[in-house]
Amino acid sequence: TGKPAYFGPRTPPATTHHYHLQVLALDTVLPLMEGAPRNLFVDSAKGHVLASGEVIGLFTGPPAPPK
Question: Which pairs with CB-CB distance under 8 Å and at least 24 residues apart come from 18-21?
Fold first, then answer.
C-alpha cells in the first residue's frame, strides 16, 4: 500500500493511440526516491544524458469495454 502502481495503457474501446516511450542513457545514478514525480526526474537528469532514443507504439483498444 502507498506504492505507485502502473496499470498499463487504458486505451478506450475501438480507438488507436500512439504511445511514446523515451529511453535515456545517463552518466550517473540519479538521487531520487522511488515514485518521484516526472519534473524532479527531468531536473535531475539535466546535464547527465549521454544518449536518448524513442519508440512509438500503436495500440488499438478492444472492440468493446471489458465487463
Answer: 18/56, 18/57, 18/58, 19/56, 19/57, 19/58, 19/59, 20/54, 20/55, 20/56, 21/54, 21/55, 21/56, 21/57
